[in-house]
Amino acid sequence: LQGLRTKVLGQKVHVYGEVDSTQTIAHALVASGAPEGTLVLAEAQTAGRGRMGRAWHSPAGKGIWMSLVLTPRVPVYFLPQLTLLSAVALCRSIQKVCQVDIGIKWPNDLLIKGKKVSGILLESSGEDERLKYVIAGIGISVNLKVEDYPEELRSVATSLAIESGAEIKRETLVQAFLLEFEELYALYLEKGFSPIRLLWEALSVTLKRPIRTHSPSGVIEGIADSLDDSGALTVITGNGEKIKVYSGDIELR
Ligand code: BTN
Fold first, then answer.
1. How far is the CA of 80 from the centre of ligand 1 (A)?
2. What is the ipTM of this complex?
3. φ and ψ at 91, to 5 degrees?
4. What is the number of the ligand 1 atom nearest to the C-alpha of 66?
5. Residue 114: which residues within 8 A CB-CB, separation 6 or more?
6. How far is the CA of 239 from the centre of ligand 1 (A)?
7. Residues 136 and 67: beta-carbon distance below 8 Å
8. Closest residue (by CA) to atom 3 of ligand 1?
């Protein structure tokens, strides 16, 4: 990554052709001593994974499929905050590089006109109630064309090229993301979650909108109201009850 302006993130980069998942490779690199900031990039993934056990469509040469190693010594329950921070960094870097109207759907999906263009999967390992390491897996559909998507994804997924009408240089976007992430991460480690939370709220396409989600106790429907200090989403239901959603997915209604 020539001209990269970060101090730590992306200073060690491992680039692959086809892999099963960059996440798997990043975990193995950490096990053999890879430091914070190590970045794994692949042209294609044969078993790209998404949140909640889903698959991630990762065709060759068309997207950014990458995993970033982080070692924040923070309590394990801070992980949702890092998830939201990742979404903010990604959203801001895309806004800097492309002309698209992009926003964040809780917790960390990036949408353009209601269609998903990028997703984030955080996998972590903890020790003594603190995080030992986190692998931030990021998938950005950059230069895919409509025909690169299987039929069933076309109504729900899109790419930066489809939406902006221009091909985007992947390296430029990777560098912009690493710089943005490094700045926000430093801000977070110094000042805590509050500044990140404000940035997230400003980029959200979820807040003040009617949503539906499934919890262990049944379906929750209401208006997404705000984020709390832990990163949970507060939903106000029809009868005025406030319910917190800590994990999972929401549907925008
Ligand atoms: C989601 O929205 O469900 C998260 C998708 C995350 C996909 C990325 S692509 C690079 C990294 N390697 C994987 O196998 N998954 C993540």
1. 16
2. 0.99
3. -65, -45
4. 10
5. 252
6. 37
7. yes
8. 50
Q: What is the pLDDT of residues 156-199, one digit of tens each?
A: 999 999 999 999 999 999 999 999 999 999 999 999 999 999 99
Find all residues with CB under 8 Å of 14, minimum gap 6, and list them: 25, 29, 38, 39, 40, 41
Ligand 1 pocket member 140 (CB < 6 A): no
Q: Is the pLDDT of residue 217 over 90?
A: no
Of 27, 39, 58, 140, the residue with max ligand 1 atoms within 8 A of its CB, to mutate for a pocket test, comes to 58
Q: Hey, what are 23's tokens?
A: 């996440």
Residue whose CA lies nearest to ligand 1 atom number 11: 137
Q: Sign of torsion, CA 129 135 140 146? A: negative
Pinpoint the alpha helices (H) of 53-210.
79-97, 160-164, 170-191, 194-203
Both tokens assigned to 90: 């990604």
Instruction: Please compute the mean of the pLDDT values over residues 191-220 and round it to a whole number.
Output: 95
In the block, residue with structure tokens 């109207």: 101
The CB-side HSE value for 161 (13 A sphere, CA atoms) comes to: 16
In tens, the pLDDT along 43-96 reads 999 999 999 999 999 999 999 999 999 999 999 999 999 999 999 999 999 999
User: CB-based contacts of 241: which residues, under 8 Å, 6+ apart?
Assistant: none
In the chain the domains, ranked by start, together with CATH numbers, are 13-203 (3.30.930.10), 210-252 (2.30.30.100)
Q: 51 among the known binding-site residues?
A: yes
> Could you tell me whether strands 210-215 and 218-227 are parallel, antiparallel, or unpaired per DSSP bridges?
antiparallel
Q: Report strand pairing: 218-227 vs 233-237.
A: antiparallel
